[in-house]
Specification:
By secondary structure, this protein is α/β, with parallel strands linked by helices. Helices cover about 35% and strands about 20% of the residues. The chain has 20 helices and 20 strands. The chain has helices at about 20-30, 75-85, 105-115, 130-135, 155-160, 165-170, 185-195, 225-230, 250, 275-285, 305-310, 325-335, 355-360, 375-385, 405-410, 430-435, 455-470, 470-480, 485-495, 510-520; strands at about 5-10, 30-35, 50-55, 65, 90-95, 120-125, 150-155, 175-180, 205-210, 215-220, 240, 265-270, 285-295, 315-320, 345-350, 390-395, 415-425, 450, 480-485, 500-505. A nine-stranded mixed sheet has the order 15-14-16-17-13-12-18-19-20, sandwiched between helices. Strands 4-3-2-5-1-6 form a six-stranded mixed sheet, sandwiched between helices. The radius of gyration is 27 Å and the shape is elongated. The model is unreliable at about 60 and about 65-70 (pLDDT under 50).
């Protein structure tokens, strides 16, 4: 049976502006085909096994498939991809920046799907034509200024197709004018409006990356706007606003007042686990960048966990080191046909509040959560309770320190390690690594990089070095503030020869947010 294509509007950039319906479609998608102007942070809503395609460089460049590595070159190729995946019975999400019906070519894709007998649906999104203006403190309508708003293309491609803009009509109007895709033609568009009768002194603005933490807004009289844009080096994507409503920005501008506005903060974790911190940073005005450094893979010994469940009677307690370890352990319980009741009488120790929360969500209140969210803290807690000499099962990742094993064994206890999952380095689109480089090297730079573990730091360095060379990777971290989640992570980063600027006091997202604010807020 043919599948379904959900043509979803992703909103302008801010991940908080994705609709609930859009989030639902991403969570159920087998395949996601995303445009260049879609925030990668939205992919945290996808399943781990999703086939992901995203345009890599510009609206006219190729797509790159993280699943298969095959580029999708043009619109016709996008059509073929949608037909092939949906024709195979898969649920495909076509994820578009803004709204798919506002200069998004969503209708064209729907026509192709209809002709092929493929079911489709539209999920509206927040259009950048409205959202960018709002983020800049510019209302597109106002009772004292503008009774209407007109959204028009500022891109010459429509003229080449014989569907040019009626500049005389736009110039005579009394409402607000929003010109999309208008950076390249900013001067021509302004001159055409003026030639058609619009007052050269009309307030105007150009907003780049609206709703993004690196949003830039240039305001000038219409006749002078292009000069200001050129002087400040504004590049696409941007929205042009013309009308007296622009003057209201001086009174109600708000977005740029957030404490982390203008700061670019990189979050290096497994993409599916970075969502909360990304949203918190964005809410404080930062341009939060999801940089996937970790991916999870099954352990080499697939039966080790189930054997540990069957042999649970031979241990006195279970140590869980991470939320991923909790997930692996409880999945093993379910796979063997038992539930949390099998842990009755066993001591459950969770290292870190995130791990404890993951246990609580699965119906278990940990008996021990050390104040220090690291192995040393658990050793101290077990020693204080005279519990080191007991029989312990430890579920963690494939790499880790031997401190717990040494302490328990030295005290006369028995330590059994089970690998619940492996941590591997995922592929990262070249567009993302390049965007972190300084402007003189073609990127946008970054102000801070957040590391939650030594492994994320190693993977980050390796990924950037593969793409741009070891010196570029080191220079990136030299220019940015390096933030570590806890002292263990800080020590591991220092061992890599990287300077650590700030260390979060505890190992949770709120502590990392506080560290970012301390390091970067204006």
């Amino acid at each position: 049976m043919p599948g379904l294509v959900s043509i979803v509007g992703a909103g302008p950039w801010d991940p908080e502006l994705l609709t609930l319906a859009g989030r639902d479609r991403l969570a159920r998608a087998d395949v996601v085909v995303a445009d260049y102007l879609v925030n990668p942070a939205l992919f945290v809503h996808c399943r781990r096994d999703v086939q992901l395609y995203q345009r890599t460089q510009s609206p006219h460049g190729p797509f790159a498939s993280e699943a298969h590595g095959q580029p999708v070159v043009d619109q016709d190729e996008i059509h073929r991809l949608l037909l092939a995946k949906a024709g195979a019975g898969l649920h495909v999400v076509r994820l578009k920046g803004g709204d798919p019906m506002v200069f998004g070519r969503g209708a064209e894709e729907a026509q192709v799907l209809r002709a092929a007998g493929i079911d489709y649906e539209f999920v509206p999104g927040v259009s950048a034509s409205i959202a960018a203006a709002e983020a800049a403190g510019i209302p597109v309508t106002h009772r004292d200024h503008s009774p209407s708003v007109t959204i028009a293309s500022g891109y010459e491609a429509y003229e080449k197709g014989g569907r040019g803009v009626d500049w005389e009509h736009l110039a005579r109007g009394t409402g607000t004018l929003v010109l999309m895709m208008s950076v390249k033609n900013c001067r021509d568009n302004a001159e055409r409006l003026i030639a058609a009768g619009r007052d050269p002194a009309t307030p105007a603005a150009l907003i780049r990356w609206g709703t993004r933490g690196i949003q830039r807004t240039v305001v000038a009289p219409l006749a002078q706007l292009a000069d200001r844009v050129d002087a400040e080096g504004i590049r696409p994507p941007a929205v042009m606003i013309v009308g007296s409503v622009v003057d209201l920005r001086a009174q109600i501008e708000w977005f740029e007042r957030r404490p982390l506005f203008g700061r670019r903060v990189v979050v290096t974790r497994a993409t599916q686990q970075a969502g909360e911190l990304l949203h918190m940073l964005a809410a404080h005005g930062a341009d939060a960048v999801a940089f996937p450094c970790l991916d999870l893979a099954p352990p080499a010994d697939l039966d080790a966990l189930t054997r540990a469940v069957r042999d649970l009677g031979e241990v006195d307690g279970v140590i869980l080191s991470s939320p991923n370890g909790v997930r692996a352990w409880f999945d093993a319980l379910a796979s063997t046909g038992v539930d949390v009741r099998i842990l009755h009488g066993k001591c459950v120790a969770a290292i870190g509040t995130g791990t404890a929360t993951a246990c609580i969500e699965r119906g278990i209140q940990p008996d021990i959560v050390p104040h220090q969210a690291r192995a040393e803290g658990l050793v101290d807690e077990l020693r204080a309770r005279d519990m080191l000499a007991r029989r312990w099962l430890h579920v963690r990742a494939d790499e880790g320190r031997d401190l717990l094993a040494a302490a328990i064994t030295a005290a006369g206890g028995r330590y059994h390690l089970v690998i619940g999952y492996r941590v591997v380095r995922p592929p990262v689109p070249a567009m993302l690594t390049r965007s972190l480089l300084p402007p003189e090297h073609g990127g946008e730079g970054c102000d801070a990089v957040c590391f939650a573990s030594g492994k994320t730091a190693r993977h980050f360095l390796a990924t950037v070095a593969e793409a741009h060379g070891e010196p570029a990777a080191r220079e990136l971290l030299t220019r940015a503030k390096v933030l570590a989640l806890g002292p263990v992570t800080a020590a591991a980063i220092t061992a890599l020869g990287v300077r650590v600027d700030h260390v979060a006091e505890s190992t949770d997202d709120h502590a990392m947010l506080a560290t970012v604010l301390a390091a970067l807020q204006r």
